[in-house]
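Researcher: Batch entry, complex prediction.
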Amino acid sequence: MSLLRRPELDVGPSRVGALRENRWVRFALARAGRLAVSLWVLATAAFLMIHLVPGDPVRAAMGLTAPADAVETRRELLGLNDPLPEQYVRFLSGVLTGDLGDSIGVQMPVADVIGQRLPATASLAVLAFLVAVGIAIPVGVAMGVITRGGRARRTELGFAATSVVLGSIPDFLLGVGLVALFSVTWRVLPVAGRGGPTSYILPVVALSLGPAAVLARIVRVEMLGVLQTDYVRTARAKRLRRRRIYLRHALPNAVTASLTLGGLLLTSMVAGTVLVENVFAWPGLGSTIVSAILTKDYPLAQGVILVYGVAVLGVNTLVDVALALLDPRSTAGDA
Amino acid sequence: MPARLPRPGRPAGGRSRRVLHALRTPIGATAAAMMALVALTAIVAPILWTDRANAHETASILAGPSAEHWIGTDAAGRDLFFRVLVATRLSVLLALGSTGIAVGIGLLLGTAPVLVGGWVSRAVTWFVGIAVAFPGFLLALFFAVIFGAGQTAAAFAIGLAGAPTFARLCQTLTGGIMNRDYVAAARIGGVSKLRLLTRHILPNIAEPLIVNATIGAGGVLLSFAGLSFLGLGVSAPAYDWGRLMYEGLSGIYIHPVAALAPGLAVMIAGMAFNLVGESAARALGLAALGELVPTHRLRRPAPLAAPMGSDEPDDGAVLRVRDLTVAFPTPAGPIHPVRGISFAVPAGGAVGLVGESGSGKSLTALAVAQLIEAPGEVGASELTFAGEAILGGDPRAHRHLLGTSLAMVFQDPMTSLNPTMRIGWQLAEVVREHGGASRQEGWERAVERLSAVRIADAPRRAHAYPHEFSGGMRQRAMIGMGVMGSPRLIIADEPTTALDVTVQEQVLDLLGSIRAADGVALLLISHDVSVVATVCDRVLVMYAGRIVEELAVDRLYGGARHPYTRLLVAAVPDMDTDLATPLPTIPGRPAPVSAIAQGCAFAARCPLADAVCRETDPEMVDDGRGSRVACWHAGEPFPDDAVPTVAVPVAVPQGESRGNAGGFAAADAGAAGAADCPVAGSPLAGSPTPTPEGGSA
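Model: Structure tokens for the complex:
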């Protein structure tokens, strides 16, 4: 993981105005370019995936007992007998138009299966994402303020211990533990499935608690660093209210640094949904990819992996945009 | 996971000693004990308990914990406790196997640039850069699609998924080593690439690589449990912890422990790998995230040396400081960088505080401004600003006074402005906070003040962020921030040190004109005697946390009596300095604040020092002419041979250039002469002041 780099750009006075007008344009172009390249790599990897399967994927999918001509027909149907470049072009244009081929197992277009399943996963992931960030930033900032300069060592120790323990519980184990406690023993929350708002509580907690703990630790460390900077000293020299020093001067800088380090944590939550969905029998993409792998439904697996990959790239882009909004230097350094 | 990279500047030797030392720390010992437990179970459990783990007991299916079955039985009536223990071996072996694959492929990809170079290496680096953006478990699922389910397939899937992270690590490590001199020498000497890799690179990256692999193995263990839990990893009849969880989940209504117990085992083993790796990283000096240097809590500072000679309470002083101390706790006990100093800044006057770095002058500035935060502690028998005692009590009570009447200008304008806030708002918030101004009023005042500090096109530039300003502009904006209120004192801590020489003069000029126009007093902290001589009326000379001499600026050249002041002044070159002779220097190094010896702190470097100096710290003595000095040998001539570098007849400036030199009484600290303080481009022309002792050289 790369540490925060802040390119210092000293722009002469005459260019200030021009830079201000162009900064967002340049940032958007550079970021979009990077996103496009990543998407292309992702799509290519997804395309190659099916061709990297050892042996004949269709034979593997249909089983050893399937008649040879049936396998051949299916191969023809999937276009696997065409020259590779032709398949590649067809795949890429299919991805662009939302046509991901047909599922072997479910006998319906992959795009339709994903369309049915995506809302469940997306709502879960977005909620967990918000909860994790919503817990981590206030807690981390508060802990940074409370424990700055070696104050409140006991609190610091307690926080460190709690966050380390919470951060090292794997999400699926946490999910199982939560079910055992809240659904089986106390019977206050639904054990599985997606229903009303209460059904979201346990999966979201299982998914967000660990990342929230780790992110809170990062935010605290960044906050401690920011509180020692010269510009916070300047803010104190202006005798601003403490609240303003922490929230207006320290917070944006601490969050910027934390997001740079914590971005990977947030993308890992996308993958985390797969396991947590399986704990809670959540009708999302997580159970779809598992059954697709087990039944060797390659087109479906291909499509779902593609969706996950896009989600990760989306989170990365969101983090970068957030950074750009919070820290004007991150856009200046681009291009 | 954050990789642990080597920290520069650590010696390489004594590895085993440091690892042993790490074992004695609580975390290191816990890690080692957990690791030993996991390893022992992995070796012993399958030998001893495989039969009991596989024995079906149809009488007790999905039974809860009992004396016979500590954590109950599974759906086939098999004892879960022993199954969890026996599963240790397979779980750990698979994790190690996957980690090996990840490290191996990572090493191959990461060191490829050394072997092949050219576009291949760039392509590999580029590809790795994209791959590391995807979470490992997602990559594992990608490879699981290709390889299918099953334990060998899962081992390869997870191994390949971990490879990009290790490739990135190897690239970073290798890059660092390739830049070293001896590698460059070997390359010029024609050493083959392969030999370069095996002789120079691999031995050097092995240590951090192993440490990171150990930490990584913990994560791999979890990933493997995850895949098995999904039914994509180990399949029946074999079982690892993830498989046991998968089986337990179906019976969670009846028997939740069946799913939880193997999960707990995963966590313990995962933490064992993590902790061992982290402690090894710490012991070997690899940087870890969020590491902080521990400090001891400071006890109340011990009463310090007797107060210095108090000066006359001069009326109209905007700042009065008596017996100011600053203490900081360190692991070795508290240090006192400022040791009881007293001075006053007259209203509208300009006082310079000079000394070498580490003399405590910046801390004095911060302490006076009430900007020292815990664990630092400030003490004083008097600290009065604008007639109000500002030390102690509720800091909020003095907020308004300090916020409007005391301005600070810091050394580094690059870091002293908030990078995420527009300059205009950073200025405006001063009057919004203290003057109750509206946004609009605040902004207008900010623009007006920016123009006042000679920022061209201020209405537009107020919208800029600090990184869009040049250094000089930023420092002027800082000064503009200080004059947002109606300051009575500006404390400027090395305001020109970080700036280009050409810009320094503008900033000093600006400070001078603000003084002249508004009658603002100035406390200028600088290591540069000539800067202080240009701007100030009075000079405080600080050494090792004490003021050793105070004098009017017109006496600085020639009239100084403390040996330190005289050496400091002599060390400043000017236009008349003979460049053929070596510049005079002060021998030795500044006394460290952590270990100030008995007696005069300057004795070790002083050409005049004798036994008395080394025994007793001299008191501050007022000479009745407005100067104070703390020296047993104040004003005595230097022995000719004592300080050869200084004895060189450098044309020590004979006085100072200010037209009104001597035109005001030294005692009133220049309130009269304050207004017309020109910024001299080339300082220090002739002057009537005689040089009683400096001239003997």
